[in-house]
Specification:
Blueprint lengths: L2 H11 L3 E3 L1 H10 L4 E4 L5 H14 L2 E4 L3 H8 L6 E4 L2 H11 L7
Parallel strand pairs: 2-3
Antiparallel strand pairs: 1-4, 2-4
InterPro entries: Ribosomal_eL30-like_sf, Ribosomal_eL8/eL30/eS12/Gad45
Protein name: Ribosomal protein eL8/eL30/eS12/Gadd45 domain-containing protein
Organism: Carboxydothermus islandicus
Amino acid sequence: MNKVEGILGLAFKAKKLLVGETEVLFGFKRGKIEGVILAVNISEKQKKKIELLAKEQGTLVVNWGTKEEIGRILNRRPTGILGFQDRGFWQKFLKEIGNDQGVN
């Protein structure tokens, strides 16, 4: 297992990772989202909806992986939207994928 998969798995087990559009939208409403991962193969409608909310709240969005890869990593059905609720896990994820933008 590579480090990115490990970070996602740990965040999920620690209940610091929201999975799917419904959970992430609810997380935005509560103001609990530190960062968002969007799979590269989600629909444009979903992408625009999440990106708009993220922009309003100053939350960084990263395109990474496919729905199938993310589902496999989390041992779930394919899913294209993940929301981190923990800044530490989010920063570790960004570091591992080589994103130097940091956390907003």
